[in-house]
Amino acid sequence: MKCRHRVLLLPLVVILALALVAPASLAQQRRLVTIASGWVVGVYYPLAGAMSRIVYKVKDLNLRATVESSGASVANAQLIGTGDADFALLQNDIAFYAYNGVTLGAFKDKPIKNMGAIFTIYPELIHVVVTKASGVRSVGDLKGKKVVLGPQGSGTEANALQILEAYGVKEGALGKAERIDAAAAADQLKDGRVDAAFFTTGMGSAVIVDSFISGKVALVPVIGGEAQALVKKYPFYTSVKVPANTYKDQAEATTVAVMAMMVARSDLPEDLVYRFTKAIFDDLKQFHAAHSAAQNLTLETAMNGNPIPLHPGAARFYKEKGVLK
Do residues 236 and 96 touch, judged by C-beta distance below 8 A? Predict the structure, then answer.
């Protein structure tokens, strides 16, 4: 009889045990979020990967962040706008255009307001690369020259036109304006088919390294009153020095740069973004190890060049750390 009671009680014990365990198990399910990055061979992708690994380790954050390769800045802003990405890496000038619905056709009169800043990371320099044979020594010398402005509708194109404007050079004053991608621009520079090209990319980028291997090109500075006027009109720019020999036989030069930055959908919970931000700064060592560009991020530089409102969760973190009043 006792044996029979034990047999009858066993299923009940199992059911009760499952009832107790199941809610706890469900509570531990991780929230899935997406980080829109860029090309797998670029800088954004490893940075996003590092953030994904960092937040996964934080038990009370309970997140699993998947990294999505994308067409980079413009596409990433649009993914935030449609809600198809939760976090994204993009240039700060693109964030400015997207949030305010200006400049680029992708955003003009179509502002993306559901986007909040988390931090800026590293400068993406506007490299003005010219052939030595062109005789160009200043942006002002580009009048009458064949110049690559970047792909149609791209951030690089906008940067190029803004810099030309600062130097009083209208597009119509150029000999010819080309709108092609960076790889094609580098090839045309090396072949002498164009006199100059604008590239918006991190310092030491492979496409610039490749352009300088020929020994036929030089880096033109963006400095002086023109650079100051540019920064005053477009506050997302900053000045950056390019040390000598960053590229083959390249002289030291100063140019302007935009900043790569991290954003989030503004409707993500404040506490989630607060703990996400805290997780990154609590493990900067791992983040810095992901790529040399990541080493630029510190608590003190996290808001440099930020052109849009902070996400409330990020603002809460910076106030807690005393870097935001």
Answer: yes
CA distance 178 to 148: 4
Beta carbons of 186 and 157 less than 8 angstroms apart: no
As a CATH number, domain 29-122+260-321 is 3.40.190.10
User: What residue ranges of the chain are covered by domains with CATH 3.40.190.10?
Assistant: 29-122+260-321, 124-258
Buried b (16+ CB within 10 A) or exposed e, 246-268: bbeebeebebbbbbbbbbbbbeb
Mean pLDDT, range 168-190, rounded to an integer: 94
Phi-psi region of 168 (alpha: psi -120 to 50; beta: other; left: phi over 0): left
The per-residue pLDDT for range 206-262, each reduced to its tens digit, is 889 999 998 999 999 999 999 999 999 988 898 999 999 999 999 999 999 999 999
What tokens appear for 144 in the block?
């009458």
pTM: 0.79
Residue-wise pLDDT for 252-287, tens only, equals 999 999 999 999 999 999 999 999 999 999 999 999
Pairing verdict, β 176-178 and 146-148? parallel
Q: Which CATH number fits domain 124-258: 2.60.40.420, 3.40.190.10, 3.30.450.20, 3.40.309.10?
A: 3.40.190.10
- Asked if residue 216 lies in contact with residue 192, where contact means CB atoms within 8 angstroms, the answer is yes
CB 25 within 8 A of CB 246: no
Spacing of C-alpha 94 from chain mean position: 9
